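Memo to structure team: turn this sequence into structure tokens by end of day. - J.P.
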Amino acid sequence: MESLIASPNEAALAEQISEHLRMTTGRGPSPSEARSWQRSLPALARDLADAGLSKVEMLVEYKLPLTSKRADVVLAGVHPRTGEDSYVVVELKQWSRAEPSDQGEHLVIVDGMPGRELLNPAEQVRRYCEYMSDFLSVLKDRPLSVHGVAYLHNAMDLDVDGLHDQVRDERSRLFTKQRRGDFHTYLREHLSDKPGAEAADRLLSSPVAPSKQLMTYAANEIREREQFTLLDEQQVAYELVMRAVDKARRSDFKQVVIVTGGPGSGKSVIALSLLGELYRQGRTALHATGSQSFTQTMRRYPGRGSTRIKNLFMYFNSFTDAEQNSLDVLICDEAHRIRETSTSRFTPAAKRTGRPQLDELMTAARVPVFLLDEHQVVRPGELGTVHTIEQYARARGYAVNRVSLDEQFRCGGSRKYEHWVLRLLGLDRESPMPWDGDQDFEVRLAHSPHELEAALLAKPGTARMTAGFCWPWSDPRPDNSLVEDVVIGNWSRPWNVKKDRAVGDAPPSMLWATEQNGFDQVGCIYTAQGFEYDWSGVIIGPDLVARDGSLVTVRSENKDPAFKSKKAVPDADFDQLARNVYKVLLTRGMRGTIIYAVDPATRDFLATLIPAD
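Reply from structure team:
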């Protein structure tokens, strides 16, 4: 990101930032963003001038490393006492009135934004400062050189009464227009009127890697809070990675480790165990996936209440600018989700290099670890297979080690059930076979969606309903209610929430599988993959039907937009991906699965394989 020079001219400054945004993100600003800049940035520029700090460098829309989050402004300059680089992160708010919410310690309610709580901007900017200190090498030995401030330049103190009480420290100061003089004093305490361009350049070009402070913290939070017992091949995989780390460091050597295993074989337990132990030993490591739902849940699980631990969990497309071997280990969980490139429709043309995502991931660490299940490749463009990863690594001269997790931990430890599913879906060379029971896992057939739902409600423990993508998926209504899109006869239910905000009582998409209120919605592959619950209810839609003793796919019945183009997804690829989708849905349960098929002939076929109660 290039630095932007402060200018009190509102129109000129807004146009300058708009052009910068187009170059760096490939999109222009929304009307609300443009208005925000025109109202807030000139006010900050005037304050800098009035404080006698006109030479300070303004970095507008500063992108935090390894994330899409952006800080409004980072002021870069020279500290007036030490002469060292000094940075002040500024969160600008145009709020006129706001008050603390009783829904959370750091939440506020803002006038003009009814219906949702927002994070106190002082807490927001404090977390930005902490994140920068945790990941930017230029701040590694000087974490106190970055400070944070929330500037509510339209509000008086009484308008935001109570928000000051939530301020924690020097990284979370809050000023109103009534305290403009105090704000100037604060700025002069951390910045001098000397050119800040060099400090800005050092920040923008800083290598990105977890700090030692973060590693120590992570070791305590993950390794000591959550104790995992690894069994058999799980321990083999764990020790294989740890040996590879030692060897890579001693001999400047890169080694790729591939861990394969079916649903519930413990891949994520291995990942968390590795992460905790690596940090305890002072190694640098990050965890990455290609799934928002899975990553958000991983952030909640080991890092409860800890923003710093949440920052260890990234996405596969976070490493486009990572330096070579900047990490000791990069743990790529759910590696079947790896895509050809990290670009999306939002990537600016100048950054569409065509660089393979595998290259980005392998380059970032001395020991890249890939944990995957090849039968979970369910979307067009995913290429996370053992063959692809191994071939790519060997072509670059990297050593490759592979371990298979033979034990089954999901599905009640029933390898028999997983094998039955593979045969049912034609993912094994053998024909479908009758289910003759397993004392550790229950399989039954429902004859209606009403029966399916009632059976799940009667079960102890957690339960979820999922379905093939055979119905449209509507946006919420204006009254904040979900549309009941999944309609089967006189039974109907909504899909899970599309996005990362709750709708009414329904949890956001990434928490559908883990929050209690998720039961009332039907989950799809995009939210179910990577999760488990005690009891799984699966609705096999009309895109998978029984004909002549086996299941065949019916593309015309599938509503997933990802499969719409036959050019992008040929029929043969659709057939494989659709079967993999149902394989994932059918293997989410830990204690049992209840199946309902919409197609009558398919129900009859399943009845010949699944004995009646």
